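Record pair follows.
FIRST:
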Amino acid sequence: MAFWATVASREVASPRVMPALTPSQKQFLHDELRYREKLNFLADNDDVNLSDYYVPKEETVDDPELLDKHDSFYHTTKSLLVLFQIMGVMPIHRNPPKPNLPRTGYSWTSKQVLWAMFVYVIQTTVVIFVLQERVNKFVTNSETRFDEAIYNVIFISLLFTNFLLPVASWRHGPQVAIFKNMWTNYQLKFLKVTGTPIVFPNLYPLTWGLCIFSWTLSILINLSQYFLQPDFEFWYTFAYYPLIAMLNCFCSLWYINCNAFGTASRALSESLQKTLRSEKPAQKLTEYRYLWVDLSHMMQQLGRAYSNMYGMYCLVVFFTTIIATYGSLSEIIDHGATYKEVGLFVIVFYCMSLLYIICNEAHYASQRVGLDFQTQLLNVNLTAVDSATQKEVEMFLVAISKNPPIMNLDGYANINRELITSNVSFMATYLVVLLQFKITEQRGLRSQQAIAMDP
């Protein structure tokens, strides 16, 4: 006991270890230090410029009527939201304007969810009948050409996306509601900080046009299959209309969101340029930094909210592209090129176009929000501004590096141009392996024919 008492009484000098802080903890510590600086100056000086020691104001609860009035993004894209509700794809709803109640909500007992379940039951019934018919024809008809069999495999696999809808879409309804509420709150906050609202030019007619185009393209694709494929009956099309329209609407939704991020980033950049030309813009820079971080978090929430849907989307595109490409090349090797192979190449072009639009728009949105802001801040002449502005520019650059505007599907994959190249490389690898088997099979058949013809 005496030994332990002696050890405890000694003052052991331990090395100081700097704690590892998250970006939000660093921001909180920075604000606390600024607030303490402000209090010390108030205690020591009567006349002091408080703008050099700006501390963010406490958050206040916004008026729901005011949120609705300035929610331009919701009003301009409402047509696509209503279309998703009618199709039963994403049954979120708009809450009544009450204080402390989010404007967009999701509830398993809401009328939107009940309608989605009703539509899903009817659609699933039709899908099951069509799936049963197509599987029976595929199994029993052994004399079907290979390209026709490929068509059957593609359209049978497409039917299975219907059964993934509740897991891929409905389960993430609360996350989608969070994303919509982030947009609603952000627009009012942007107006309070900059004094100007975010204007989305041409987004209203663009959304309506994409809604109509999504269903029109689905109808045209299904009717073309009805006329081109001898075993594709007309009543099959009623199972595929909503499924292909859903894929088109997903692409339209992603395009609209990426377009809106680019518009918001451009508006924030223009306000930032005006502020940097003013005298002592440190206070506004801090507010703009918070606006930018909110915008980056919204981009991250977009991938989190729709992760399962777009993950299913990428898998369907990946599988369909491989099967269609292999089927067309295999038939060209066996029988030469025909119009059916052209149809398979059209399916490949359609799938890759959808993937390209999603990845390309995500790339441009991330570039506008991230790289463009970094370039603009790095071009600021720090020697021509005061010390407080220098600190804010440095903090802005740190915020951009610590909160990169990346669209990530909840850890599964980053949506950018790299996803296109990786998918193409994977598909090329699988196609090379499959074609090797096909060429080996062709050589075996030719050798057997040669042996049979040799007397």
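SECOND:
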Amino acid sequence: MKVWVDDQRCRGHGMCLTLCPDVFSLTDDGYAEAIDAALPTDLEAAAVEAIECCPEQAISEK
């Protein structure tokens, strides 16, 4: 599983970073970005929760 953040939709709420800090980080501008690698199996559930909880629906599975 890989995840992607739509930088046009992200508004920097940081919910994804709170739920899954091993996958998401914030840019210098305060917007989310995801690691560009396949996620380890143990992080997939947290990544799915971040996708579901994003207030802007800016995160999707690649």
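COMMENT: The beta strands are 3-5, 24-26, 32-34, 59-61.
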